[in-house]
Amino acid sequence: MWNVDDIFAVFDTKAISLDNFVAKLNNRFPTIQFTYEIKHNEQLQFLDVLVTRNSENKKETVTLRFILNDSHHPLQHKMVSFKFLIHRLLNCPLSKERFEHEKKIIKNIARNYGYSVHLIDKLIRKHTFKRTLYNSTTFRSDTDNSKFVSNCRYHMNLNMNIVTI
């Protein structure tokens, strides 16, 4: 059986010499052959994928298809896409300018689908408040605790005893 593990790492070549680094790795682990690739035109071949660096430094995950505000879907279904975008906005490390740019995009999406831009501000405040509250207390409700779940084979005596507990 043949198993190959690949690592994707980014180096500042001004601070580290790649040739020296790879030589040290190969000397340290003689049974493994380390190699490296250098990007060309902001692209890097990695396994069977061509990785391209863009100016946004993030993967596109939004299809820009949302439920219209005047549809008859439940409110929770309408809000889930905006909650996702706001969660990503608040949890991805962004510069202040990029944060404001992303927030503006979310508000434009809301406006285009018939929602009030104040709704986005309200969702951001709510999310921020919940996170602040959660981080400022050591008390956690019972719902925060993960339940222990386990699978086991059926054994008549054992399973009947577990059921009676």
TrEMBL record:
Pfam family, one: HTH_animal
Domain of life of the organism encoding this protein: Eukaryota
Domain Helix-turn-helix as annotated: residue spans: 66-125
UniProt protein name: Helix-turn-helix domain-containing protein
Species per Swiss-Prot/TrEMBL record: Aromia moschata
